User: Fold these one by one.
Assistant:
Number 1:
Amino acid sequence: MGRFRAIPYAKALLAVVEDQAADRKEVVADELDRVAAAFAAVPEFERVLVTPTIPVDAKTAILNSVLDELEIEEPVRRFLHVVQHHYRMQHIADIADTYRKLVDQSLGRTRARVETVVPLDEPERRRLVDAVSAVEGATVVADFQARPELLGGFRLQVGSRVFDGSLAGELDRLSQEIKVEQG
């Protein structure tokens, strides 16, 4: 079986949102995230929706019930019915992630993950985000996580690039160098 590609679905939804309600791009991303989280939290939803022996009407009723509970609005509701019709609900997390990346790109921003030994206070966070924004040439939205196992310093991920300035990372690099030299 071929590898699923979320990009056509995410692009199609973004085109609809930009055409009908461009100011709702973020709301749509949040709604997709809520649906993906619900499916991750209750795997039975996905199993029911991808089981071929369950009648389409029953699947539609279940999907509508979940969407009602999550207070999902148009155009996300309609989009999710299309996704369900094409037997792709098991990929909703990938679609949601891809859609959010497209929204970020359209708004000239990028996401970063910052891991530090101890939590940073707000001024430290702001300085770090400002510095990364200057280097990236885009607005940076950062997710901060405390990771004591880093031992010192920090680790920054922007897109697929990782900048490891942690003490644990440095120790790992030194260990690899020693192994190569002994090798």
Number 2:
Amino acid sequence: MLALFRSMFKARDKKGFYRKSLIWFLLTASIPGFITGGCIYWFAVDHIEEDLNVLHQSQMEQRVKNIDDQLMYLELDLSHWAFSPRFGWDLQELDFVYYFRDTWDISQSLVVLQGSHPLIQDVELFVDGSQTVLFKTGYYKLEDPAVIASYRELLKDTRSIYWTDRKTESSDDEEIIDSNPQDSIKLVHKIPGDSPSPFGILVLTLNRDKVVNLLKTMTPYNEGITFLMREGGEIIVSDESKNNDIQGLRDEVMKQGQLSGTFLWEWENSTYSVSYGQLRRIDKEWTYISAAPMTAITSPVVVLSNIILLVSTIGLLLALVLSWLASIRMYSPVERLIHESNDLQARLDNQQPNLRMGFLLQLLQGHLRHYTEADLRERMKRYGWKVDQHQFHVLQIQLIGFSSLSSRFPPGSESLVTFAASNIIEELTKEHYEQFGVVNFHDLSVGVLIMSMKNEALANQLNFLGEDITKVINRILNIKVTITISRLTDSVKRISETFMEVERASGFRQFVNQNQLLNMDDGAVHAASNEERYPFEIEMDIIQSLRSGKKTEAEGLIGRFLEEVLSHHGTEVHVQQNMLQLLGSIQHMILQSGVSTFRLYQGANMFDLLSQIREPGKMLSWMKERVIAPFLLERDARASMQLKQIVERTTEYIQANYMKNISLESCADLVGTNSYTLSKLFKHITGVNFIDYVTELRLDKAKELLSKSELKINDIAEEVGYQQRYFNRIFKKQVGITPTQYREML
């Protein structure tokens, strides 16, 4: 037994000695790494930064020269084309339609010019001669005065060749101008190139993306800022850098007071190596500016030194970890329990707002009526509310006029607008009350439950809250608001009934697109007048217009109907009831005309859709687009089908009786119409007139008999309904040869 204990203690001593030896070895191995990494970082980086900066400046000079060569090539190439005889004085009086081959040659020349350099995005030739035309790899005759004026402005410039970013007007009828002229650079040369009084211009438009990519060659590793600017500091073209970065760098360069140079620029905790200089462009001086971050230039060395430091640090940390491994293992179960407890508490805290909103939604909609008052108050306490000796108010906020915001919010974004409004309401309510709950219904309406101490007067405060909500939502969302404030209740069970009263009261708002505040305690909400006046005469006019297919008249009458209803009632409830009655009358007329409303409206519940609309303008447009337009389209389609059947019956009769004496009048009597109407319908449906159709059919039958039978020409003429002399004459007129020659050719 004694020997066993001695062996255990000996093994323990060996294990402790091994651990200490390992720790000292790791510490000894890590110290040289710290020293080496520090020396490289503190002493070598600055020297390498200077060397790399010199190398960067040398590369910059080469790349700037390349950019200058590219632009100079464009200038020389355009001058060459401007002096070409193809763009000489002949273009001033040339009829481009008559001499279409010359026009085609000009278009091909522009295509060649456009493909001569990758920077060229577009080539245009404007000729202001006997005809005002524009070539853009194709011929276009200009008629828009605004477009002509914009090109004449370019022609009026006193310089024969120059760079500009002046934008030309676009035409409404022809897509001949670049649809995205933002930051476009144009090179303009007047033609003829040697003329003191030019009559046209050649315009090269550079591809902005390719120019930006060319400028990016001045910054290493695709990092930094680069752009071109004019003498006055106006930016010509720049990369995708932030506007603040470009403006700050431009101001710093202009402070230097020199035409070219290099300097270091501190900006937003970064150091940039800035190079700038001049690019001489014909009669102007452009300034190129390139700023490359020093971190991008010296990053390889910094990364290497950081790796050495990191490896040394990891070695040291590993030694410390090994020494505390046993204690960590002992503490790990307790740490796991604490972590799980904190995680569960964090999840509960994150889900509590959703749980409170779900509870409020069920409470307002009456799904918790089977609970007792005590149970409901206890649940509210668990959600963090203090409800003892408290009273309650319910507010309903409706967003009005959403359809008028189509330019700001796309259709279908009602939920997004309601979400923004609910956040605004929550922030404003927090400033007035300590305890409240906000429910987002996602249908342009929001509910608010406010809790306050009993015997606390809230009438004025609620009105002030409603006014604040109205002002802020009007200013931020640019939408009108209707707020309905409930009566006071001190029972949690009656909150659902109170909310139902608020919903009913909100239906008595004035049906106009304006802010409204309805307080049920003030008596502002009352039942509408029992006297109702329904515009029966306008309804009859609407029905008659729809039966006659007069779309414009029917739409105008529906507008009058809505105006009449608004002038007599004005409340939302009455307007919806009258419009629903009108919809029922229209559907009754549609059924009487033999059209299925289920098929016409694809099974949609039109009454339900109409009852959900809360804006007069949207209600009017809905009646036009969803009710009137489909019916009139169906009516026109049925009429077109009947007309097509008349023409089909006529063609069937002609094909069966082409050998007889057929006339337009006899066919019109057959189908039950007059000859004038049948002639117009026949031409519209078949594309040929009646006589040509009969003649073509008879000649086709004659050709068939000439090729497949041995009948005489006289017999064939009788077979197809012609006398021989007239048959020979009309056959030669239509075919070009006589019937005998046609048979011999076969």
Number 3:
Amino acid sequence: MENDYKPLIILFLTIAISALAILLILKYLLPLFIGILIAILAEPLINFLSKRTKLTRGISAGLIIFFVFIAFLYGLILVIMRLLFELRKLINMLPNINNIIDELTDYFINIFESVPDETVVFLEANINQILKYIEGLASNFYGLLVNKIGMLPNVLINVFIFMIFTLLFGFFLTKDKNSIILTAKRIIPSSLQNKLKAKHIELLFSFVRLLKAQIVLVMISTLITVTGFYILKVEYALILGLLCGLLDILPVVGPSIIFVPWIIFCLITGNIVMSIGLLVLYLIVLGSRQLLQAKIIGYNLGIDPFITLLSIYLGIQFFGVLGLFIGPIVVVIVRALLHSGLIPPLYNNNR
């Protein structure tokens, strides 16, 4: 009887240990993890450059990593410049929030002109209370925004240090790949090497495909949102589009936290065209995410979409937002270990 439960116990232990290990990696060893991904992605380019130019592996790795760094830095500078431009406009607008609140108050009062006086007094008091609360939030946001912009140099320095270490890890992992593999072979027992040989590449590339799938989903959502905002001639389109794209990672809430109040506000203020435009854009973003999430991740990992969706849901329940990545990664690890024979199957067809 105990042997019947042994595969199930091993499976649950594998899932728990894998989830904990991934959580620790994402929290403390993210530059190293990204460096490994860069090394894997850069490997074909390095081999191609080494063969075509007769350059050493170290020089080829250095050139590829350098160009990756320059391209990323260039894109980051362009985005930061645009963000700073839109943030400056936003900061200049925020001190005038009182005028906006007064205009909204007058607008609501005009709406209720045909309503009985007692009702108007009640609604006016409540509306004023709500608008004062919004004014307080806006003032706090303004102060927070000014303080955060003051911290921008420190943030940029931390980002730069993170990038440098990530690229250094990527460089040395690609440059010294052969020696790292030889060292690993000396440490890992030969019996374990035989089991890992067929599946360790699949496991590593599954991580890459998972990351690629998540990046694709976020990029699609962000691109749709930013494009939609520019078509609708929305101010601060880039800031709001990037924010909605990032919020799209979050379960349940997602970009709804921006879209829904905005649509309602446009309806109340009589801006029907904008409300319809935002609603259509919101439905496109929501629909594309729901349709593509399980399909893209499942296709890239070779996992059934239902299992992918279940792993995402359970990951979110246990680990919050990080579970969006941890859940599918755990499935990938368990799948690779089952296929390699390192953990026994739950059932035996021969029985």
